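Section 3.1 - Work completed
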Amino acid sequence: MSADRSGWGSPGPTKIVALAALTALVVGISLVTARGDPAGPGQDAPAPQLEAVANARDGNEAEPASAPATPDVAESGTARVVPTDEDGVEDPGDSPPPPVVTEPAEVSIASGPRLVTEAAPAVFTLTRTGETGRALTVAVGVAESGSMLDGAAPEAVTFARGERTTTLSVAMADDDVVEATSRVAVTISPGEGYLVQEDAGSAAVFVADNDRRFLLPDLVSDAPTPWGEAEVVWWDGEEMLVLRFEGYVTNLGDGPLDLRGNPQLADPSDATSHEVWQRVRTSTGDWVSLTKPPVRYETADGHNHFHLMKVMEYSLWDETGTTQVAPGRKVGFCMLDVEPLPERHPAPGERGYEEEDIENCRANQPDADYLLMGVTEGWRDVYEGNLTFQWVDVSDLRPGHYRLAAQADPHDIVVESDETNNGVAISDVISVVPGHVAQPLAVATESDTAIDIVLAAETFGIPGPRYFRVVTAPANGTLNAAVGDWLSGTILWYTPDAGFSGYDLFEYEAFDPYSAYPRQAVRAVVAIRVGEADAPLGKPGDKAGGER
């Protein structure tokens, strides 16, 4: 019998069994490794498996210490390892989901009506950010300057599940005692699961006695009057093109808008931390202090006196008056009586706020301890267009026709008899931003055939001379002018590339070389159809616009 070169003699029954066991274990180990067993490439096999291999090699029976992972072999021959534990097969779905980390909510508070009368509650609105899938209780503190609270003040408010906002009502008592106006302030206290939003953690409502009738002012929105043509101004280190206008603070109420008191701020960051009160005259002839609106000494506009802050807002709208095109600018005023309005008020009051009365809102006296300003019923203050900030910046607007607009008391800082007539009032007079606007064009030519293109622009107002320049070159042809060249004429010569058929295009703009405005000239597209083109029109710079 020839020698067995493998080193094995004729295999007996024991060796056959051992060889079969070894083969099965090696295949099993390979499948386990291929399917992601923790013993990956380059790592040692688990101890029970090594022991089984050794036993098979030595002809011994393997006695595993514990039940191994069992390969689940599909018809395709691939194995799936099902982990087991002492209780049997573990369902992967039984594993708990990873914990969800939620950011704490930010809670803010705002007052409802800033003034109520006794017997009516002081109402506040709280808003939270973030998820709303659970209820949230927020701690609050309530402070009142008088003695009008009806019972104990609330100490917390709860957002129900799914609520983004909730309200807090502080009950006020009703009595027959004539008393001064009270101030109810609510402050959010920090707590579990939420943060207090910066600069929005407190709010206040004023509560007035209801045993007298108040003769309140009523500010109405009057449209501004355009003041000449657009002009260039230099302000705060910047040059800009502006539209000037005349603005108004108009009082058509039953009583005056009266502000007086010490304007010095206890907190420079809080424009209401002074003792300047809005006072109202009552039906019994006396005066009641109602609220403290924002008042500040301002120097940014060069007026250098005290202003009632943000009492007006100016904006610019399109020619139709339907779309706002420039954001509103909030403006403060030093208010006085300038024009009576007998045609708009049944009985204008006697002029009570003349320039000598208000001392120009204590101009150049930032440390003044007394301030008076106001507008009598049936009168209006007039801010002429030559004053600083009586303008709208139009430096970046395309030339065209626009309308100026104004809104009185947009943030309800003044207590009025009617808050519904403070909408935006749009001027009937057109305001013009001067300049030239290039017009879009569409032309056609045959393949390998040049064409004249007549450039066009719409002119608004009385700007300087009109020039054109190419901004982006065509991708599939050439022009007789390079990008950036100034063109005093209107004709460009376009030549398509040899053999090209399709759509080509380029951009151009019109401008006044003697004006820096608009800061970015308006671009227009010239679309060129070359030959029998049916390809879609591309965009400037596209090479794919047809065939060659």
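Second construct:
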Amino acid sequence: MTASTDKAARTKGSAVHPSIARGIARLGQDISRARRARRISTTDMAARMGVGRSTLHRLEQGDPGVSLNTLAMALSVLGLFDRLADLVDPASDELGLMLAEKTLPKRITSRRKNASSENSPSADASGADDAPEGW
């Protein structure tokens, strides 16, 4: 493995799965393309993001060590932040909704009060009567 390939496949000593590295690289290319389509220079983009040009360059090159905050700032400058916020929206997570539906109980029954705790004098002294019913 060459030094450049090894560098692209690692972040702070942790290996990055090749498919994830490809996805991050594509994300960086897409950010670069969106920036250029808006005719924003790297100097201006980095200044708006509050980072250095080298950090923007690393983001656009698909460096997996770039922070999520840097990605969020880039998307904000490009007017695309809402896409990040909606990325894992539970309402659009079909698998999550299906799994949640399977685990829903078929019926809900009310809890029965424990007879020994109702007749206990300590329950009256503790101020349990002050709590709203059902809590």
